[in-house]
Design goal:
- 33% of the residues lie in helices and 20% in strands.
- It is an alpha/beta fold and 218 residues long.
- It has a single domain (3-217), classed as Aldolase class I (TIM Barrel), CATH 3.20.20.
- The protein has an 8-stranded parallel beta sheet with strand order 1-8-7-6-5-4-3-2.
- Strand 6, helix 5 (152-164) and strand 7 form a beta-alpha-beta unit.
- Helix 5 runs parallel beside helix 6 (182-188).
- The longest helix is centred in the last third of the chain and has 13 residues, at 152-164.
- The termini are close together.
- The structure holds D-xylitol-5-phosphate and zinc ion.
- Zinc ion is lined by residues 7, 32, 34, 65, 174, 194.
Length: 218
């Protein structure tokens, strides 16, 4: 079954706790938490303190998406704050294998993210070590952007490879996922759908979680 990962980037921060509870009650399995450093991406968000502040009130898997240079500096802090999973970008460090090991040593699962223009080739010697690959379907940095259709073949190729090799590694897609694009990524083979604006900018975020999941499974 397709898993839903609402992104709090588009939540109302003045009542973040309530918004987290809302999507959890709607059945979301994963909470997607976008960390931006103003260097790798042209925007700033939050840090481990925010993760810690919402950890106590949710059982969802906390999926931390690091859009930061030198990701190795922050793994321990997010682990201590209660992250279950960390994804970092292939483009942010020459020591990709080392960072994956570091994440696992802290008892978390590990993912690597690829920007829309980054080919799958860089995964070749690390795929067996990964729990998840995050394929960006927008350029990282902002919520509410338009889905980049050219990424769809990349999802298909990765899905085919994972099936052939009987890999348990999951494919997460992030950016511009909504009722129109969910069926496209669902068919292409995505396992986890991140959705920010299409959930939290809607009048009924709970219905949105259910509708997007259903649209992706058709
Ligand atoms: C973008 C972030 C996304 C963002 C997606 O850089 O990684 O997780 O929240 O937002 P939507 O779903 O609105 O495109
Ligand atoms: Zn994200």
């Amino acid at each position: 079954m397709i898993q839903m990962a609402p992104s709090i980037l588009s939540a109302d921060f003045s009542r973040l706790g309530e918004q987290v509870n809302l999507v959890e009650e709607a059945g979301a399995e994963v909470l997607h938490i976008d960390i931006m450093d103003g260097h790798f991406v042209p925007n700033l968000t939050f840090g481990p303190a925010l993760v810690k502040s919402i950890r106590a009130q949710s059982q969802m898997r906390f999926d931390v998406h690091l859009m930061v240079n030198e990701p190795e500096k922050f793994i321990g802090d997010f682990a201590a704050a209660g992250a279950d999973h960390i994804t970092f970008h292939l483009e942010t460090t020459p020591h990709v294998h080392r960072v994956i090991q570091q994440i696992k040593e802290h008892g978390m699962t590990a993912g690597v993210a690829l920007n829309p223009s980054t080919p799958l080739d860089g995964l070749k010697y690390i795929l067996e070590d990964l729990d998840m690959v995050l394929l960006m379907t927008v350029n990282p940095g902002f919520g509410g952007q338009k889905f980049i259709t050219n990424v769809v073949p990349k999802i298909q190729v990765l899905h085919h490879h994972l099936t052939q090799t009987r890999s348990a590694c999951q494919i997460e897609v992030d950016g511009g996922i909504n009722l129109e694009t969910a069926p496209v990524v669902g068919k292409a083979g995505a396992h986890i759908l991140v959705a920010g604006a299409a959930v939290f900018s809607q009048p009924d975020p709970q219905q949105a979680v259910k509708d997007i999941r259903q649209a992706a499974s058709l």
